[in-house]
């Protein structure tokens, strides 16, 4: 199939294909048991020119029943931290150990050249796997954070047309309460970014809300409102029942009539709250129109980790209950090869595969495939350009030989074909050895 794609001209059909109904727009056709639709897709001059019932095309590239997905959208990553594990490990593998390790590495090694090299490596991984848009959180501790934002403004320009790159700040909530708050918000606004924070104080973990939490949260919202910024928040990332910031964020957004988009990530502690409190929180999140992004691989890695003891829970939030309430839920990569998650490659096919297993996004699959493309595109405000298969869209597609969901989710899909503007992408993930000198690794 790749040979045929490489030889294809500007006008061809992908025939005898399957696509998730949740990722198709403008084709009314019955779906099979896994929520997949049989269809033919015409690509012309780099765009999708037609979607037709299977059997319409008389010739073209025969997908043999394989799946076609839109380019992936990864709405929560940490490109500035990526790939530092060989240089700075997390000896305990838990959340506190991750914070300490990253702080140590940031202070010792994060020059602009270091950040740029690791981030570009990560973007090349994502690009080769078929991702078309990424939002990255950037550690924004002043004065160091100013250099990080400079790096990513350059990367955003360098990667334009390959990956649409969005940036969000991240630092503890109390950092915005002091004199640095306005400068932090101005840096984000001047860079066209998203205002983000974590709902804990400096040096702390996600547990009982501090006494000044509500005043600090209102001040944070006011910084965003004054600059017309959207919000992206790390929320309740622990197994502590006192971590109840999600409810307060929703109440604050409703009380203030906040007009921007809000995305909240993690929200782990919600799954161990009393049932009535969880239901109330979910209803408020739905009413406030807050988007939720879950990071199942990273949270399963970090949460409930105690040396010599088997974890008792998966560390993830109530995604099925949220979807039932009408909340938009996405899945994303989060950290890659750093002290918060020792693994990962910014491969959204892997993220969806593991999310399905961890969160039971199957039987039926329903519209869960949208969590890796359309829903994050909507949350990021780029659904007009990315996240679905529709006539007129740029033909940025990911093609799998797998026909059914059990085939798609049983293997790494390393033989996938990635199309960019209808042409076969020749990129492959970069060799780990490229980073050896930067990270001090002896090959």
From TrEMBL:
PROSITE patterns, per the entry: TATD_1 (PS01137)
Matching InterPro entries: Amidohydro_3, DNase_TatD-rel_CS, Metal-dep_hydrolase_composite, Metal_Hydrolase, Metallo-hydrolase_Enzymes
Keywords recorded for this protein, A-Z: Hydrolase
Limits of the Amidohydrolase domain: 60-150, 214-418
Coiled coil: none
Catalytic activity, EC: 3.5.4.1
SUPFAM superfamilies given in the database record: Composite domain of metallo-dependent hydrolases, Metallo-dependent hydrolases
Entries under Gene3D superfamilies matching the protein: Metal-dependent hydrolases (3.20.20.140), Urease, subunit C, domain 1 (2.30.40.10)
Xref: Pfam families: Amidohydro_3
GO molecular function, a single term: cytosine deaminase activity
UniProt-recorded name of the protein: Cytosine deaminase
